[in-house]
Request: fold
Amino acid sequence: MNSKKLNESLKNSNAKWLAKDNQITTLNEEQKVRMLGAVKPEGYKVPKATLIAESLKAQIPSSIDWRKNNGNFVTSIKDQGGCGSCVSFGITSTLESRIAIEHSMLLNLSEADAFFCSSHGAVCTGWWPKPAFEANQSRGICQEVLFPYASAFPNNDIWSSPPTCKVNPARGQNEFKYANINTVSGIQAAKQYLATTGPLAACFDVYEDFYSYSSGIYHHVTGSYKGGHCISIVGYNDADDGYWICKNSWGSGWGMNGYFNIAYGQCNIDTYEMVAVTNITLPQVIYANIKSNNFNNVFLRMDGNGVTSKTGPGSGNVNCQYGAYSWELFKLNRQSNGSYTIESNVFPNVFLRMDGNGVTSKTGPGGGIVNCQFGAYSWENFSLNKQSDGTYTIGSNQFPNVFLRMDGNGVTSKTGPGSGNVNCQYGAYSWEKYCIVNE
Reply:
């Protein structure tokens, strides 16, 4: 579809959106259809709108956006490629947001695990959100780091086939499970759920003009029906007659950095049921980066070179890095007493060690020693303390009221050896607050 002609049609129909050529519009028709994948179950019936009390309707705010709702609760945009796996991206994104809302951890989960390793099977045929959530409820979904989406395809090419299921040996300790699957239908019920609980996985009908979407509030103007598509609704706004704010899975180069707005009532998006989950159970092991809440883009870094046996004073080096790479990824291992060990994902059996001897009052530069230990013992056990602002403090289980402190002053670019300073502080203040992420 020619974008110039389409924009003329949009202008003539007083449309509130603009079109432009993009990486999707250059595909052939068969490839465009492969970007979809929402397929109704056999015998599917359109649900009736969920009834909500008038008193609740009056309390629904005029807008909400979970990307900026006293913080960001939405993970980064991804790309499904030429596989009809949009349902997996829609449900996984919705679950990721719920984990962030319930547990203040913004983590990427594996769409490949949810799609190719569940009862759906290692094929690129479509699915539907509720059956997809049901299929993954008891088995859980692991993190992207254990089964990256591209690795399911030959030569890591997301446009090649066939896909395969790859079960990482560590998967059994990294299953994010949920107790409740929640379904709503209709505009008011969906708005009420979004405002009070979080994002929703939803499906809608795709027409030819949608591929060319660039910005604004989409409504169908021209072009034939192409198929069903699943996305995650991350918000809404009643302005301009109302629209849903949606996260797509066609890469950040499409639409508004991967997002689009679609008018209420368009393309059956609020006619089909919308689905989400609640009551998330965290797994025994979480793969995460530990990001300073005080210093922009500064992460905890662990160099465990040479740490191959237990020593009294510990060894290795722990400092800061600008950005998160392999040495900034950790395994947060929950212990039977509820504490955590913080293990390097690069250096086997190397753990964060905190020596809080002498740290008995707050000081400007902090004190004590933070380094590495081979194996985990009492000085390698920590409490992860969730704060009211969604951050975490990391406290020593051995030394009362002693917390991990990060000084990221001057850490403004990536360096090989890292920089900054990591030590201890008596009490937890701004430099002792962290975000648990893995995007």
Notes: The two ends are 35 Å apart (CA to CA). The chain has two domains: 3-280, 284-438. The domain at 3-280 is CATH 3.90.70.10 (Cathepsin B; Chain A).
